[in-house]
Each structure stands twice: as C-alpha cells, then as structure tokens.
Amino acid sequence: MFTSIFDKENEREVIQEGERANLLRMYEDKPIYFDNWDIDIFYTEKYWDVDEVERMEWTELGTVRAVLEIERKASNSTIRQKIIFYGESRRIDFVTYVDWKEHQTLLKVHFPVAVHTDEASFDVQFGSLTRKTHQNTSWDVARFESCGQKWMDLSEGHYGVSLLNDCKYGHSVKDSNMALTLIKSGTEPNPTTDQEEHEFTYAIYPHKEGWRGAGTVDEAYKLNQPLTAEMGTEEGKRYSYASVADSNVVLETIKKAENGEGTVLRMYESENSYTRTKLTINAEFEKACICNLLEEVQSEATVEGNVIDLVLKPYEVVTVLIK
Questions:
Q1: What is the pTM of this model?
Q2: For residue 88, what is the domain's CATH number?
C-alpha cells in the first residue's frame, strides 16, 4: 500500500492525506438475489482490509524499471503483486496473482486520489461516458457500481488520475476514492465460482490536464496490448502497415474482408471530437471504400497516393475497405 505518491513534475501529492492507495479490501457479498451476478448496495457495511505482508522484496532496480514484489495472505487466499515503476513512464503497474479460496466475498482495490471533481469518466467500447461521483440523487445512489472497460479517470481543471486495467470492468468511485472490482466469488448456481488462480494487471496513471490531453486512451491500449520484442530485425528500421494522422482516432481493427476480397480497417473517434484525418497505408492498393459494419460498400473514399482522407464525427466508427 502507498501512503504517498508525489508527482515531482507537477509538484503535487497524488494520494489523499491520511489515506492508503492500492488498498486491497474484502467485502462480505451476500446479495438478496442472483448471487453470482448481483452486487447490492449494502455490501460496503462489512469488510476486511488486506494489510498483512508475508514477503516484500525489490527484485529489479535498473534504469528502465524497478520492481517491488509483495505477497499477502487474505483469510485462506494468497495475493502476490509485482509493482512496476518505470524510468520513462508515469504509469505504475500492479501485476497481480491471486490464489482465491473465499466464497461470497468481493475483492476490490482502492485508490483515494487528491483530485477535486464531481464527475468520473469511463471507457466503453468505441467511446467513453461520464458519471457523478456523489450520491445527491436517487439515480446517483443507484450507480454505486459502474461499468467501464480499459480505464476510468478522475480529473480536475489541469490534473487527473486514470485507473487502467487489462480485464476487470466493475468500478466504483465516491469522494474521489477510485475502486476496481477484482473478484466476486458467489455461490449460486456455481458454489465454487472464482475459487481458482487469477492473473490480471491494473495500473495507476497520474497525469497533467484531463484524460484527453494526457493520452489515457493510448496508455490503456499500451497496457492491454504491450509491445513484444522480436529477434533478427534490422536495427533502426521502422514499419507500420497502416497509421492515422490524429491521436484521437484509434485504428482498432485490421482484418481480411469477410468475403475474402480486400482488407478491412476499422477505426473510431475516441474524444467526442469532429475530426478530419488521413489514413496512410504502406502497401499498394487500387481503391478504397467506406463500408458499414457488415462490410457493405457505402461510398468510395478520397485517395491521394497511399493516403485516404476521412472525416469522423464524435465517437463515430468508420470502416474502410481497400482492394
């Protein structure tokens, strides 16, 4: 757990005073109905903090990264983490292994951050949405657990913190305490749900400005699709089959056309912004068309050399077929 994370570049504390971050907390989880699906609002009334450390050791100390390994016991379960600090990245990764033996117990991790806002942003497929962080209305009270895919973010005027993950989609946030649901372990209809070994990674990403200016979407993709090294490539050479000119346009998919005739490239606008961009293809092709999601041709695209001109509306998904 962290009692302090100080951002030297922006000269400010990331964690709320007197609070602990990367706090693993086990909640008694006994919903009235649908044990393996529902989380009821009263689950927060009974909980246990996982703060007993069995082993703690620095296993890497280099210029590229440093790694702190921590092992904890939680009731009958074991939690091991590799906490990775990077020399050239603001992200802190928590690579986690859990051997879970509990039932009707919800495991969450908490990051109470020093960010003043009443609104949180959440990643959804091909876009994002916002939800309030307070419980001033009955609608806000009902949203005590929120869906999100690769990231959630809390940002104030010129600073924020993103919580990234590679496979966990239940979030909660109240009074700037960001939390990610890690394991549920209900008993009905499967009496041993989640009682197995789990491996997942989440990360905290403090940043200047809001999530758009900080590149949270890009950072979340880096966590979910990390670079891999390959032996035998020529030093100094760079190659990309396709690229887009604007960072808010995400090239999400490159695939063969379903009918086998051509290549499909699918992209979306990620920041709720009308955008004119250029798609560059580093391969020969005869023509490019705009298609719908069924890959039915809608119109012919404007092409100059190997560059395709495109216009994306806010959060729009665009599919291009090249032949």
A1: 0.93
A2: 2.70.98.30
